[in-house]
Amino acid sequence: MQELPSDVVDYVFGDINASQVSKIHAVANALNGEAWWFYPSGASNECDRYVVWNYNENHWSIGTMNRTAAVDAGVFRDPLWISSAGVVYAHENGLAYGGAEVFAESGPIALGNGDRLLTAVSLLPDEKTQGDVTVTFKARNYPNAAETTYGPYTMANPTSVRFTGRQVRMRVTGARLADWRFGVPRLDAREGSGR
Known about the structure:
Blueprint: H1 9-14, E1 25-29, E2 34-39, E3 49-54, E4 59-64, E5 69-71, E6 80-82, E7 88-90, E8 103-105, E9 117-124, E10 133-140, E11 148-154, E12 159-165, E13 167-174, E14 186-192
């Protein structure tokens, strides 16, 4: 055995209910090369947070999800995970998101070291996203400035967008209940001016 270095350890141990540590449990998700740990947050008596290590890609993820027991696929066709309300979920199967908004969001995108303004005029999405997702951009001129939201844009080939900022984030949101993916888009952007 050896300790796994983790860049989320401070987050996890900074918000854990120490009086409920006996409820912490782990489960493998071999289909995706992951090990999951569920734990109760500081404000909860049940497991409502998770931390995931993807051993194929060697990265960590964190999030919120109420699961008190779990078993990987093998005996059962799909991984079965159970909430504190007793609901059994067949994970990695189907598209029932329970009313949650499914999205993916980038980190800040900037030209150079963020010392120049980025002006975007169009987005070329990959060919399989049209009708499945919308894209929203969030731009700001300074790290502590308020963000301005542009969109959501419905995907076309190309998609006309207009915004300027030193830092830009892109959020892709599922437009319908579907097994969508968002490949490698191309943003037509150039150095802009502050006027």
